[in-house]
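Reviewers of the previous submission asked for a worked example of the structure-prediction workflow described in the proposal, so we include one complete record here. The input consisted solely of the amino acid sequence. No template or homolog information was supplied to the procedure at any stage.
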Amino acid sequence: MAEENLKTKGTEVEEESGFWNRLNIPLPERSTGLFRYIRDFFTCLEFLTRIRMTKREVWFPDDFARSVPYFPLVGGIMGALMWGAARVGALAGFSGNVLGVFLVLAELFFIGTLMYDGFMDTADGVFSGRTRERKLEIMQDSHVGANAVIGAIILILAKVTLLGSFPTAVLGPLLVAMYVVTRTLMVVYILLFPNARPGGLGEMFKTGGSPVYLPLALVLAAGILFYLGPVWCRLTVFSCVPCIALAFYLKWNLGGLTGDTFGFLTECGTVIVLFLAYYLFR
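From that input alone, the workflow returned the following structure tokens.
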């Protein structure tokens, strides 16, 4: 992808609406030293959530690649926000599926629909039963097909049912672990799997990246999970196996991964973590 195209695509993050978007914290165009890491963190935060705290006029192709090590940290922030939402729901007297619906709505408020979009596009393409090239074309089509609709319904029903199945004491740390695991796995998908097609989101996150980003992300994720407790580390190991197996299936099916498949894998990973936790804590 050309540098200008990357810059144009990157500006979508800044222009998208979100809460806290009125703070408009100014950041230098090309930060150095400590400010560089602050800039990279906010790039990650504003891409993965609906939180908009900075205002930038210029984007560079490697801005997104340099944000990759912060995925686990932003996952932890997501989990903390959702833990707070779970507490609010419990105080309001919500339980069961009502609490599950409340948490799905809270997720849409804090995190948005970026991963849902990738999930639906991938469902349309992969389950179309067409050739590899045609599947990739379908995934780029802006129209929504039956596979996407049915997949989204099943996904939301699974989330509602599973999220409403845990006691509040377990649900809080589970949400943190779930978002840390799924966002850390995104780093694995981005850095270790080939792109199914040139350009796009996958290449944008690899342009200007570094081999040290993966170990940095893994160390950061391990630190958060060890702080939560050993049971969450065990859940992480069990969850990673089917998630990575699913990534290899998509690689075989499509010839690699795309930005849409990152969303598909992340949403499927969410359900996998919740499902395994259900059996672990029942």
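The CA atoms of residues 55 and 228 lie 34 Å apart. We consider this example representative of the routine output the project will generate in years two and three.
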